[in-house]
Amino acid sequence: MMERLTADMADAARKLMREIDGAAVRREQAARLAQLRAGRDARAVRGALRALAEVAAGSRGNLLEATMAALAVRATVGECTQALEQVWPRHRARAEYSMGAYGGTRGADLAWRQAVDGVARLARAGGRPSILIVKLG
Predict the structure, then answer these.
(1) Nearest to 132 by CA among 25, 16, 41
(2) Model-level pTM?
(3) Listed residue (39, 44, 50, 43) closest to 73, CA to CA
(4) pLDDT digits over 67-110, tens only?
(5) How many helices (H) and strands (E) does the chain have?
């Protein structure tokens, strides 16, 4: 009975997953960016991005104000980021994952134990649950 329940749960989880065609999303975004760039004043954008980099490089001016000015002439967030990266390096966080990091402190908690057991049953039925968190932009 329990095997059937976990198999049904795994099947239900697969049905809830949303598949996204990354290539199609990329094409759509590229088309929107091309349209944006075609309809803006390129000289004004270059000037605003240059001003943004200058504010970032010095101690004069307001960085938020310079960023908002660049966005107001339709610079993209990526272009603003590139202007700032001319001055400051991009932070690269190290990905560190510790499997089981919470188990030692939560081991006596019944709800935690039930959750761990549920994940173990799903793993035996066809795979661990997974989550993908994405921030666009």
Answers:
(1) 16
(2) 0.56
(3) 44
(4) 999 999 999 999 999 999 999 988 887 777 666 677 778 778 88
(5) 7, 0
